[in-house]
Amino acid sequence: MIRTGVFGKVFFERPATSEVSVRRGVSRLVTKLLCWLSGVSQPLRAAFLTAVYGVELLFYLWLSYQLRFDLAVPREFLLHMVPIAGWVVPVELAALLICRQFDGFLSYFSTPDLRRLFLATAGSSLVMGLAYMQGGVSLAPPRGVILTNFILAFTGLASGRLGLRVLRQRYLFPAGHPRQRARRVGIIGGGEVGARLAQELMSKPWLALQPTAFFESFHRPKSSIHGLPVVGPPEALLDPLACKRFDEIIIAMPDAPAKRIGEIVKILNSVKLKFRTVPSMEQLATGTVTVSHLRQVEIQDLLRRKPVDLHIETIRDILEGKVVMVTGAGGSIGSELCRQLAAFKPHQLLLVEQSEVQMFAIEQELAESGHGGIISPLIADIVDLQRMRSIFERYHPSIVFHAAAHKHVPMMESQAGEAIKNNALGTAQVAKLALEFGVERFVLISSDKAINPTNVMGATKRLAEMFLQSLAASCRGSTKFMAVRFGNVLGSSGSVVPIFNRQIAAGGPVKVTHPDVTRYFMTIPEAAGLVLQSAAQGTGGEVFLLDMGNPIKIADLARQLIELNGLKPGEDVEIQYTGLRPGEKLFEELNHEVEKLSQTDHPKIRRYHTDTPVALDKLQRTLDLLRRGAQHAGSNELKLLLQEAVPEYCPFFSQPV
Fold first, then answer.
1. Do 141 and 287 reside in the same domain of the chain?
2. 11 and 219 in contact (C-beta within 8 Å)?
3. What are the angstrom distances between the C-alpha of 186 and each of 119, 190, 250, 629?
4. CATH code at 362?
């Protein structure tokens, strides 16, 4: 049992032996009843419920007469009560049947069930009222009895169902969840999310998490939430006596600033308390998870960005009912684009992916989320002209999101030919097919590394942007070609966060290239959402740049990740500086000198455009040279060819040229 003393002190008492015996007896009884109901055939179950409901409704009708006449029902009304009950109770049972009160399990009772129960009892009471208006008390109960019966039937049936739900939650445990001592939990955050979390944990004892107190910065003395004391701000846990009262802390502040979350994490790490957090506000709002789906605090929580407000209707206008293609559909950005695109109800969603393993994962996810009827998984390599042409001929996509690319900077430095084939030649090939087959919009997923590039990956992305701008200038009005640039995305494959986490798990060192190196970061859903918004705003020939916030020092990111694991940077895990790798910059830039900036309708998106794109035939000749060179030329030769096409490219040569 939980009790609270002065100053919100929380302590426990063991329940008395007799109380334990009663609980066990109730548990066994309820278990047998509910298990029997869930196992019997539907006809037998319906007969049982009809009998139970019938007896209950007959009792409420009798009690209504007694209450109407102050427990002294006149003889003439007693004579009429039996024949009246003969048709009233069947009508009430029929109303319960129509409102599906015989379908669900008795112990599962929620707001929709309550609403249907109200409609059933109100509907049957309306029938009784109509009968009274036609024949008076000889045909129906008196008006006072009808009203009293409605109140008793609704509250009685609802109370019974609710009671069975409480018994199930309190005494019945799902398979695989044995009884265990509940961990004492403190909840940081006394808002709506924290209150919902406490309710859910108290109603699900099999989770073995017993909330005992709240921590809230703005609290009143002796205040409580759901009977649990609010003992003070999170800083109160710095008191050694206070932190000993808890086995675990749950941070229930999904909309708190990142700075505040970081402060709380430092407090919890300093007192060596295990901690977790609730899902994000986006997940809670969409209903994909509940507050009790706890997870570890992640770096995204410490780098929290404000949710992006998308102009949903403008995006829906270009997507709904259309055939949409996503290349690189199994990648980090491509798969998130598929998730968000499916919600806009396209006629068909084409998933183009070279990797069978990645394709299988996103196909299964979309199918399980109810989008299996609109997706078409297509294994294809974008540099395979015949395969891509056959896809365009068969499906005729209206919109193409081109996310297929080789993106890992150090790897592409030593394999320039592959980067050129995939990022530049592949993009040009798919773009020309889009023009040939009348695609309405073609959106290239580019990178901030395309700005004044110092590596092959960035140079090939810049060349792809240039080709789209030239193509857009030469075919004005038919297909709208555009590119969207953004920086690193948290949690994507090959990104720095999972690499650092593996190094921390191995005991270190965490390897950072340079103490001053900075990068821009976004979350994957944020980037994908803004890509869709950019697609809706594009008129052709633009390069959109997403607002990535302030750049973050990679060294600071490493320290925060170490602290999230309950360790101290420099003591438990060392940070080792290895030097910049070939092609890497200290910082990323935002635009080229020749690009002109203009605002868009969305505050998180800027538009760059150039008045003098490179002539298309000149770029095509460059691409032809690169296509021939990609098969046999060395990396240095290919970098020189790239530099001719992209003058601002400053290549790193593996050996003197």
1. no
2. no
3. 41, 11, 6, 64
4. 3.40.50.720
